[in-house]
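S1.2 Input.
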Amino acid sequence: MKDAFSNITEWVFDLDNTLYPRHTDLFKQIDWKMTDYVASLTGLAKDEARKLQKQLYRDHGTTLNGLMMEYSIDPHDYLAHVHDIDYGEVEANPALGELIASLPGRKHIFTNGDVRHAENTLRAIGIEPVFDSMFDIVAADFEPKPARGPYEKFLKAHVVHPVEAVMFEDMPRNLEVPKDLGMVTVLIVPRSGSTHSAEQWELAGGDAPHIDHVTDHLDDFLADVLEAIGPARNPA
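S1.3 Output.
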C-alpha cells in the first residue's frame, strides 16, 4: 500500500457509485429519467425506450453521447431533465470528506455527469468544500469516459501528471485508459450482500490487469492509505 501511494499528489474521484455506495441507488432515479427522455423523444413505449437507452449507453459510453450522435439533441436540456432528482436518498458522510481532505495534494472530481449534479451530490454527502476541481461532461465537450479523449483533456486542463495520480472508479472499463496513461487505479465495487441496480456488463472486468486495487468501502480504503503513507505526508 505504501509503495503504491507514496508518490501520489493528485487524487481523482469519479462521482456516482464511487463517493457514495452503489446500494444508495441514486443513479436509479437518473436512469429512469433517461428512459422517460428517450420515450418522449422517440415516441417509443417505455419498455422499448429503455432497451434503446441501454443500447445507447453501452455503445456510446453514456446515453447522452448516443442521443447526441444519433438524434442531435440539446445536451444541456437533457442534463437538466435527468438530474432533476431527489438527493435526499444520499446518506450524509462527512467523515469521508475529512479523509479526502487529509490526502496529500490536490483532489479532483472527474464525472460523466455535470457540475450541478456533482455539487448537489456532494452537498448531500456533506463534503462539497473538499475538492480542488471538477471536470464534468461539459468540460469534456460531451465525450464521455471510457473514451481516451476526456482523460487527456482532464490531465491537460488541470496540469495533472498521470504518474503522480490515482483514479477511483466504480466501472472497470473506465479505468483502462487511466492505467494506460500511468495512473494508479482503484475500483469501487458494490458492498457484499447489498441490493442495487446495475447492468451486468457495467461490473464486468473487475479482475482485469488494469485494476490495481479493489475495495467495497472507500472510507476504509482511504483510512488504510493514510495510515500507510505515514504522518509526514498526512497534513491532518
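S1.4 Remarks. The mean pLDDT is 91.
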